[in-house]
Design the sequence.
């Protein structure tokens, strides 16, 4: 059976009250169906409150980032242990905004991936090309480099716990989704890379698509081969639009 991971990345939106309200809306509308994992990733300051609200439900909670050290003099950083203590089971790393705005490189993302896996949490490793990369026909080269360095040293056994999120940078928050053929080609390339790198588990790693996914295009995108879910930004900030995407996934399993 095909499996989907539908994740809402709330980015730097919501305060404590509105994050709880959003979690309640999702919780009240969710009808669980096998094969679809529902995940919400609030800002750090709201994580505990959301985790308490969805406790004992089928909604998973994740963080938007982490640091790779367990503890120390790293002002402003959040460790995997801290995140785990709240009850999070996923952590997003390598998002294009972290790469572009905060200059995070693949080597740092790889350190984070190892730290996350060591603590028994699942990293969602974001990759994707810029518009200049695509116009220069460098998409596969960029994806290969990000995967090659980002997954360095991860074993085949560990690979069963990773998620890859393909997000073409030019489609994030722009309202412009990649064309179906572009998504299919990128996801096939990623699947082939993973299957070659991880002989046992590479074929089963979930590959999400992210980039202006909304209720109108979700079913079409999720039906594309090798698309195993969506990492959703703006459309995850309203319970009805997020749940419409969840429902689209549920209709496909």
Sequence:
């Amino acid at each position: 059976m095909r499996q989907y991971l539908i994740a809402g990345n709330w980015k730097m939106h919501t305060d404590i009250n509105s994050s709880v309200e959003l979690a309640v809306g999702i919780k009240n509308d969710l009808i669980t169906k096998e094969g679809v994992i529902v995940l919400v990733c609030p800002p750090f300051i709201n994580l505990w409150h959301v985790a308490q609200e969805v406790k004992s439900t089928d909604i998973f909670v994740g963080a938007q980032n982490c640091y790779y050290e367990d503890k120390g003099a790293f002002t402003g950083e959040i460790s995997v242990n801290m995140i785990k203590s709240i009850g999070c089971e996923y952590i997003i790393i390598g998002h294009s905004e972290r790469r572009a705005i905060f200059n995070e490189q693949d080597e740092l993302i790889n350190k984070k991936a190892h730290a996350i896996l060591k603590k028994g949490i699942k990293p969602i490793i974001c990759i994707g090309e810029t518009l200049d990369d695509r116009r220069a026909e460098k998409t596969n080269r960029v994806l290969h480099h990000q995967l090659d360095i980002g997954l360095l040293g991860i074993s085949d056994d560990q690979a069963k716990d990773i998620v890859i999120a393909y997000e073409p940078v030019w489609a994030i928050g722009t309202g412009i989704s990649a064309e179906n053929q572009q998504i299919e080609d990128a996801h096939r390339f990623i699947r082939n890379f993973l299957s070659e790198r991880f002989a046992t588990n590479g074929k089963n790693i979930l590959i999400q698509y992210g980039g202006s996914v909304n209720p109108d295009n979700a079913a079409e995108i999720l039906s594309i081969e090798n698309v195993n879910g969506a990492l959703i930004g703006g459309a995850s900030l309203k319970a009805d639009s997020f749940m419409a995407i969840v429902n689209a996934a549920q209709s496909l399993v």
